[in-house]
Amino acid sequence: MQKLYKLLEDKNYWYKKYLGCNEAFLIALKHAPEVAIDEIDLFYGNRESLLKILEDLDEKVQKELSLPHWKKAEIGSADRTKIQFLLREKESILQRIVELDKEVISQIEEIHVQGQEKIKQLTKGKKALANYKSSNKYNAKIDKRV
Question: Looking at the whole model, is its pTM more than 0.90?
């Protein structure tokens, strides 16, 4: 039973790490979006590494639960309560991760829209400048005179 507890506690630990990674990236997106966008590959790499760790822990839990002594084991009330506590803790962490992921996505979309607006403004500015720019033929005539 202790091994199962340890595996479930380890999973929750790594879910918290994953949550912390999301929280840090969201803070960066809100306060320094240019820096955060430059580091987005690092953010995704960290998340992938954490997911791989969690996947390995899932396999270990499944392996532990597939052992023969679990099929015949009677789980006591105290053990059941502790397992339910760990599972509820995991669920609350996962719920917060989902909420943060939604916030991250909305922040990235907002930054994208702002970037598109800046591109439109720059394009308008370039067109306006082009109207005041001399043509190449006119520049050639001036060069010949000089």
Answer: no
Cα angle 11-64-88, degrees, rounded to a multiple of 5: 40
How far from the centroid of its chain's Cα atoms is residue 85's Cα?
A: 27
Q: Are 65 and 4 in contact (CB under 8 A)?
A: yes
Q: What is the pLDDT of residue 103?
A: 94
List, for the chain, all residue ranges whose pLDDT scores fall below the cut of 50.
none
Q: Which domain holds residue 53?
A: 2-110
* Residue 76 dihedral angles phi and psi, to the nearest 5°: -75, 170
- Return all residues near 146 (Cβ < 8 A) that are at least 6 apart: none
When divided into structural domains, the chain yields a total of: 1
User: For residue 142, what pLDDT is reported?
Assistant: 59
Domain assignment present for 135: no
DSSP, res 39: T
Residue given tokens 């969690």 in the structure block = 54
